[in-house]
């Protein structure tokens, strides 16, 4: 009797363990709830406000928003795809889009009738896969500009106008290199362009560092490579050949990482992706200027006791200034348990109504022109001039904007380019080594 | 004898069922979480698999690729370098601490203090050291710089990164290892030491002639365990350097993780895991043989 009871107990326990694993569903998805994930904590209140408007318009539907930090976000999303606990809708990044399209985990959104002309140029087109179907609705956009410490710039005798009028070239670095050399100060107070400057004992670097820049160099070398006329791939979208073996590109990279060798840019040994990115270097007063993205505006302008302003990227050999223009999108997961609700929510997210509300929070530039306008006004209200980020989009005569590389095997490209770039930056490896890396990458793309 | 052989069958059957019930939870855990994943991992190593679409049999392709992959060999070298530094320093330090605890103090408090870093999670320990050692902002480098010495890029330089990570993990694990060795020391009878003392042996001589030989089986087991653990280093690397700079700390486990969860190449990642399994098994058997871990010189 006792034995039988014990066996029964053990059996029940085993059964509950096994079924328990299968039933676990952290998303809480149901027919009247739409689960939504995003990674930027700054944007959470804006989208919560948007969700409120949505729920009012769609009685009976509820939006459950989850915010996760950037790296946890993708790990958890991947795990979610495998375990079936993915959200209905999530904020998608171009860098991951190719891979998700390969894995066929995204739901086509063709019937949402997204009109390209309703959004800032180029944003909507990026989210069409190689199969011709749309997998994302435009959410927001960002560009890259220079952030600078106003006091350091003033102490160096430079003006805001001068910083907005810099130019560079891969031979002598132009006025840009002159400026960051002058902004660099060694332990004994000598500037980078003064005799006796000690590059091994620098107190303040002219230019901060965001590391080697992986395969895209978005906030590192891409403004230079772009203004030299170079493009990542042979085609704007879904290219089949990367061009890291290009002579122009390699001359840009050699000059750019050479800035660290000269002591004007924070060396790789001082950078750490966890503890010491460019914004930390600026906040700690270890560097005077840096390239960074529009998503960092609130961060930089929020530094206590430090006045940070922004300026446009320097003009390159092509005569144009350049910046990557990247945009996020909202995607629906193929395994979503509430596709009808998810479609409604994504349509709402892509509408002027929601994007204006988000814009009014002044934390991001929404994808629709009206949303962008609301954001610019909101930043202005806070006393923040964001023209360095909006000008490149408005003034196509003087600016070149280019997109994040969209190809297959993006994760493999990053995995190969990261060590290659760090080797040049940190160990002084020759840039010609990129020829081999590029060949490996193109071999993978050929599969 | 006849009586005995007549009645037990019933009891034996009863015992068998009861035994099965008691063994079931552990056996279930072993089958579900160990044996099945291992077999499946070996199977997947012969496939191309991205987790979301069905695995496709590719024979030995992954193994051929592995043998020809310079990054794999590089990460294996980096891992071995890490293990040698980590285990070398850790074992010597742990042995010293254990002997000091045994011969010098009876304080339970002191014995407890030795263990404190082990109470911290690997990730937290990694983050704390990352902040202490940051080249520009870390308090460790502030002190070094105040002493008039050049700042040291502990975790951001090719030559420094692996030794630094090895020592961070020594810091965390040395107390625990010392405690295991200390338990081994406690098992050595005191009269051996008394006899040695009567013969006029010094502490140094007693360590080499009494402690070391009698501690050998325990030391061997501790070594086997810590070497296996050391080969599996992952979290400290993930938190402090993420494999960089320029793959200088791309240890095997990190490469496997990146291949699987970053690049969705679960087949190739499985092949490298199988390689790691083979390497670890070989090392363990070798260690067991060389140190005669199964035999004691005591008694």
Widest beta sheet: strand line-up of chain B? 1-2
Class per helix and strand makeup of chain B: mainly alpha
Poorly predicted regions of chain B are 1-5
- Report the CATH architecture of the largest domain in chain B: Orthogonal Bundle
The main β sheet of chain A shows up as:
6 strands, mixed
Give the tally of structural domains of chain B. Answer: 2
Any overview of this molecule?
The complex is a heterodimer of chains A (447) and B (299). Chain A is an alpha/beta fold and 447 residues long. Chain A folds into two domains: 32-141 and 327-390, D-Maltodextrin-Binding Protein, domain 2; 144-324 and 409-446, D-Maltodextrin-Binding Protein, domain 2, CATH 3.40.190.10. Chain A is 41% helix and 14% strand. Chain A contains 17 helices and 13 strands. With 299 residues, chain B is mainly α. Chain B folds into two domains: 2-44, no CATH class; 69-291, MetI-like fold (Orthogonal Bundle). Chain B is built from 13 helices and two strands, in the order H-H-E-E-H-H-H-H-H-H-H-H-H-H-H. Chain B has a two-stranded antiparallel sheet. In chain B, a hairpin with a 7-residue loop joins strand 1 and strand 2. Mean pLDDT of chain B is 90; it is low at 1-5. Chain A binds chain B through residues 3, 6-7, 10, 13-14, 17, 75, 78, 81-82, 99, 102-105, 200, 266, 268-276, 280-281, 284, 286, 411-412, 415, 418-420, 422-423, 426-427, 429, and chain B through 14, 17-18, 21, 24-25, 28, 50-53, 127, 130-131, 134-138, 150, 153, 155-158, 239-240, 242-247, 250, 258, 261-264.
Give the SSE layout.
The complex is a heterodimer of chains A (447) and B (299).
Chain A: H1 2-23, E1 33-38, H2 44-57, E2 62-67, H3 70-83, E3 89-92, H4 94-103, E4 137-142, E5 144-149, H5 150-155, H6 160-163, H7 174-183, E6 185-186, E7 202-207, H8 222-227, H9 247-261, H10 278-283, E8 287-293, H11 297-301, E9 308-311, E10 321-324, E11 326-332, H12 339-349, H13 352-360, E12 365-366, H14 369-381, H15 387-394, E13 399-402, H16 410-427, H17 434-446
Parallel strand pairs in A: 1-2, 1-3, 7-8, 10-13
Antiparallel strand pairs in A: 3-11, 4-11, 4-12, 5-8, 5-9, 6-7
Chain B: H1 2-6, H2 8-44, E1 47-48, E2 56-57, H3 61-67, H4 70-104, H5 108-115, H6 122-133, H7 139-146, H8 158-186, H9 190-198, H10 203-231, H11 235-240, H12 252-262, H13 266-291
Antiparallel strand pairs in B: 1-2
Helix pairs in contact in B: 2-13, 3-13, 4-8, 4-10, 5-8, 6-8, 8-10, 10-13, 12-13
């Amino acid at each position: 009797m006792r034995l039988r009871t014990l066996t029964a107990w053990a059996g029940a326990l085993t059964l509950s363990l096994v079924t328990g694993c299968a039933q676990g569903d952290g998303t809480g998805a149901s027919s009247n709830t739409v689960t939504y994930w995003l990674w930027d904590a700054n944007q959470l209140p804006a989208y919560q406000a948007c969700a409120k408007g949505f729920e009012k318009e769609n009685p009976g539907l509820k939006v459950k928003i989850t915010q996760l930090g950037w790296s946890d976000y993708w790990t958890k999303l991947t795990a979610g795809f495998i375990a079936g606990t993915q959200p209905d809708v999530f904020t998608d990044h171009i860098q991951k889009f190719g891979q998700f399209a390969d894995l066929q985990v995204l739901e086509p959104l063709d019937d949402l009738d997204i009109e390209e002309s309703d959004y800032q140029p180029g944003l909507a087109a990026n989210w069409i896969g190689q199969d011709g179907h749309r997998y994302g609705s435009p959410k927001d956009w960002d560009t890259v500009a220079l952030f600078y410490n106003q006091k350091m710039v003033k102490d160096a005798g430079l003006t805001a106008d001068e910083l907005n009028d810099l130019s560079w070239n891969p031979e002598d670095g132009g006025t840009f290199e002159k400026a960051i050399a002058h902004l660099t100060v060694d332990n004994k107070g000598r500037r980078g362009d003064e005799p006796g400057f000690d590059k091994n004992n620098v107190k303040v670097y002219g230019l901060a560092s965001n590391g080697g820049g992986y395969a895209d160099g978005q906030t590192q070398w891409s403004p230079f490579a772009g203004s030299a006329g170079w493009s990542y791939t042979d085609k704007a979208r879904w290219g089949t050949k990367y061009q890291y073996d290009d002579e122009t590109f390699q001359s840009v990279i050699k000059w750019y990482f050479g800035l660290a060798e000269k002591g004007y840019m924070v060396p790789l040994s001082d950078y750490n992706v966890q503890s010491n990115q460019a914004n930390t270097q600026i906040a700690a007063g270890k560097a005077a200027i840096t390239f960074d993205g529009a998503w960092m505006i609130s961060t930089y302008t929020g530094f206590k006791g430090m006045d940070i302003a922004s300026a446009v990227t320097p003009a390159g050999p092509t005569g144009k200034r350049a910046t990557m223009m990247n945009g996020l999108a909202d995607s629906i997961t193929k395994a979503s348990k509430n596709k009808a609700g998810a479609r409604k929510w994504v349509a709402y997210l892509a509408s002027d109504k929601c994007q204006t509300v988000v814009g009014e929070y002044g934390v991001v530039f929404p994808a629709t022109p009206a949303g962008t306008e609301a954001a610019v006004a909101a930043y202005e209200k806070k006393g923040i001039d964001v023209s360095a980020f909006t000008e490149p989009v408005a003034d196509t005569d003087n600016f070149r904007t280019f997109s994040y590389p969209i190809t297959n095997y993006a994760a493999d490209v990053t995995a190969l380019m990261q060590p290659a770039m760090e080797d040049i930056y940190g160990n002084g490896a020759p840039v010609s080594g990129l020829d081999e890396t590029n060949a490996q990458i193109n071999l993978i793309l050929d599969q | 004898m006849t009586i005995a052989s007549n009645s037990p069958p019933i009891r034996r059957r009863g015992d068998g069922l009861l035994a099965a019930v008691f063994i079931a939870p552990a056996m279930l855990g072993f089958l579900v979480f160990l044996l099945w994943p291992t077999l499946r991992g070996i199977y997947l190593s012969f496939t191309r698999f991205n987790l979301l679409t069905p695995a496709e049999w590719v024979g030995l392709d992954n193994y051929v690729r592995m043998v020809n992959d310079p990054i794999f060999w590089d990460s294996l070298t980096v891992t071995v370098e890490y293990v040698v530094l980590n285990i070398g320093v850790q074992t010597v330090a742990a042995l010293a601490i254990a002997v000091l605890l045994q011969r010098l103090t009876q304080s339970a408090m002191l014995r407890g203090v030795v263990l404190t870093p082990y109470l911290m999670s690997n990730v937290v320990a990694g983050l704390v050291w990352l902040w202490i050692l940051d080249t520009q902002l870390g308090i460790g480098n502030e002190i070094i710089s105040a002493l008039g010495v050049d700042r040291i890029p502990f975790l951001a330089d090719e030559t420094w990164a692996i030794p630094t990570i090895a020592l961070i993990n020594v810091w965390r694990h040395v107390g625990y290892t010392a405690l295991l060795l200390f338990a081994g020391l406690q098992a050595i009878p005191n009269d051996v030491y008394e006899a040695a003392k009567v013969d006029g042996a010094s502490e140094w001589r007693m360590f080499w002639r009494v402690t070391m030989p009698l501690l050998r089986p325990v030391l061997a087991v501790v070594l086997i365990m810590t070497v296996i653990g050391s080969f599996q280093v992952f979290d400290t690397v993930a938190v402090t350097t993420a494999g960089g700079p320029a793959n200088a700390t791309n240890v095997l486990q990190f490469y496997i993780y990146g291949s699987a969860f970053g690049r969705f190449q679960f087949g190739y990642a499985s092949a490298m895991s199988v390689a790691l399994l083979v390497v670890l098994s070989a090392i363990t058997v070798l260690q067991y043989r060389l140190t005669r871990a199964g035999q004691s010189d005591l008694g």
